[in-house]
Fold these 2 entries.
Entry 1:
Amino acid sequence: MSDQPLGPHSKERIAGISEALLRRAEVIDVLPTPMAAVHEAAGIQERLDISKLPADLEAKKPPKWKRILGALAFRERVVFVDRSDHPSRVVFTEAHEAIHAACPWHEPVLRLDNEETLDGSIRETVEAEANFGAANLIFQGNRFFRRSLMDQVAIATPLARSDEYGASAHATLHYYAQGHPDAVALMVTGRYRSGVDGTVPIWKTVESAPFELRFGKLDSRFPGSRLSLRGGPIGEICVEAAKSAGTTSAKVAIHDRAGVSHKFVAEAYFNQHCYFVLVTERRARTLGRRARLEIADRLPQT
Amino acid sequence: MAKTLGKVLQEARVRKGLSLRQVEAKTGIRNAHLSQIENDKIDQPEMSMLWDLAALYGIDYDRLLRLAGYGRGPATSGRQRQRMTVALRAMEELSPKDQQEALAFMDQLRQRRRDEGRRDE
């Protein structure tokens, strides 16, 4: 997932575009968001499944065909999606292509890329914008928080809601942390330890605006952007989460930008591919219902 | 001497008879921010911002992208514009050759579906 930071104007525009699509499609509060209706609202004329090929074309498919998740042909208004993929990834790809279709500057920027080689970061920005808008479509903007904030500020809350939105645990946790009104941050790490020091790579951190304002970036506390699984409360709860198939927690202290220590709870979840750690301020956790996480529902996503 | 992005935008705004505050009201772009762009204090505004300004002023977006440094070279003859413009999402970065092969194949797939649709009519 491209996590190129977006400027404030782009975020506002894309959030507005997503909202307009939801309204035009008449799918406000319809969950999971029906992407066929959103595509129609975005002017998509045709949706093709690239996993189902006629026999003669199957024999001619390019070597990297299986690496493609989806595409949008702008002028032709055709979306190509691999429907054999995991359902939550199909949903995300469909939402992603809908945003490309609806953002009027995406086609001219990518057309410029056809004509001249663009700086890779520009293409990454376009992709990050589509990802941002896709999440807004799937989670329907702030409505996700109106529902989630009735529940405790905890990792179980987004995990319990992901199926309702047709989204992956990863996407739901990301959206939850990114837009939460309290100081909340998410860390996502790889699962394979370095043989030398037993650390895992921190792929990304996602901070809510209040967290970043008061505490900065979460990964600034981890040298080399690596997390040790051999010691420390966060490493320990990750190891335990991998064994338990549920979530685990520990109390941690996080210093703010002024160096003042604050009490947080760190919770870990392992989905067989990566570790997720959500840190929430202890004082924010006292309110709200505790979301029940049905362990049987949290089968590994392939 | 070639005009800067800021100069092009300022001249376009003035031609339209718009104040900075009026542009803010219409686009949401803060007037202070736009002033900085026009004075070349910000040389690469967001692509979405350039789009909104191009649309409001009625000026060429491609030109603004190039002036902002988003394109690397001069405009081509336009012959490449006939290629399908596609946003491709893949599990990994694909080489230009892989991308071209994928796009050509998608075009074939689309044509096949279209032909099948015509046969069904």
Entry 2:
Amino acid sequence: MKVKDLFEMSEFNLVTPGVEGEQEITGGYSGDLLSWVMSHAQKGNLWITVQTHGNIIAIASLLELSCIIVPENITIEEDTIEKAMNENIPILQSNLNSFEIANLLYERGII
Amino acid sequence: MEKGQWAYDLHIHSALSPCADNEMTPNNIINMAQLKGLDIIAVTDHNSAQNLPAVFKVGKGKEILIIPGIEVTTKEEVHLLCYFPSLDLVLDFDKKIKSHLPPIPNKKSIFGDQIILNEKDEITGEVEYLLINALDLSIDEIYKEVEKREGVIVPAHVDRKSFSMISNLGFIPPHLLINTLEISKNCNKNDINLPKEYQFIQSSDAHYLGDILERKFFIGLKKLNIENVLHYLRNYYC
């Protein structure tokens, strides 16, 4: 399954217009401590996090994560969105919380 | 030096920090600080003090007081500014925390360079492991190691939404002797709501030369020396 398949879902809102989402999803990872994510998330994972500062793009880039999902309609900094678009990393925003997002992805067979 | 108000910037990054510009060399930092008319500075790199020997060599004999310091990232991903009474003590602390930095290699194209410089601004080495990573030491453990070396902890940029003690913990641990908090240079201390009275300092967190502060924030000291600055940071009589 590709990230772009999530774009149509009503629970998600694409915050990085123009990013195509051709990345294959290899799994999911939920975590807010960057150092922990850096050591444990896998290439191609969807990353669910409440962190919205520019460093999340550096981490996503480093690990070649497929997508970042920000829960609870947390506002994402303009600088982060710009960096994401430059790196071609899709950011989705959702009104659901991290737990609900992970649950949803399992229920729909995405992960 | 006589009693007075001294202009400071206690949070400056050198080229050792990957996020800082490579022009943040010992000579450039000291020269810029002097140009800006500062009396007291601290070069506080992420999880390392390896550029401090050169900074101190350059600063020797110049009319600027340098406080040995380091910006640690704890296990909780909280940034703590740690200030020490001497170069030897900050280097001893640096040695201690080295083994607690995860061995994740820096990727320069993403994070930037981590260069060690001498007093002539020549590159003498590079740090291999990513310095902006979190140490596997908690706030309490860092506190013990700093206290052992007669240092003082000032939680960094507590007004920020990330890497701040307030954003990550929601409070300042009351069992630790912390009386001074750092807030960002553009923050108003009246916007911070805490149950206890704290003293605030504001510095640049400079990653580029131009960011180093002008004479904007001042510390009142009877005599200008490291011991008095540390005493000021450690205590708050409100």
